Prior knowledge:
With 172 residues, the chain is α/β, with parallel strands linked by helices. It is built from 7 helices and 4 strands, in the order H-H-E-H-H-E-H-E-H-E-H.
Amino acid sequence: MDSAAAVCCVVVYSIVFFACLDEKGQETMYKELMQAMAGKIYTAIMCSRCRADKYILFPDSNSAYLKWGIQLLPQYMLQNKSERIVVVAADDLVKQEIAKSGIADIRFKKVSRYSMDCVLSFYAIEDMSDRWIVVSTKRPYDTGAERLLGVKGITFRDIIYYDIYKLDGELT
């Protein structure tokens, strides 16, 4: 199913459930739906302008995710044979960390916090994981992966390596 059909399905299902909600629930659902539609537009524009193989989103500047997300990026690029990667973030700190790391061939695209929220709302309803990677376990929804931290020595690095970037083999 293409993304336009997915959004249409969500709209149809939303209309059915919309009638069952109270006024506050309707307002929340409407807001989420509008954000998702704006997110579809933002992703389409970004894809047409950047023409990248992969888009890596850093929705927050959480230091552990940022540190390991940037540090493991070369392995991700190598395993996925990605030559054109665009890192998308709403925070300049991400751009600074990329510059410090010395990784070449990565473009940075700064977006507003609202644009990031819209893209994440769209990402939550449309599977874009083949080209779009979100370096977070909390956004667009909580995956629960952080509950594993410390269990049998699991670290943020492990979560990003295996869960977010889905890299193969042993951690090096």
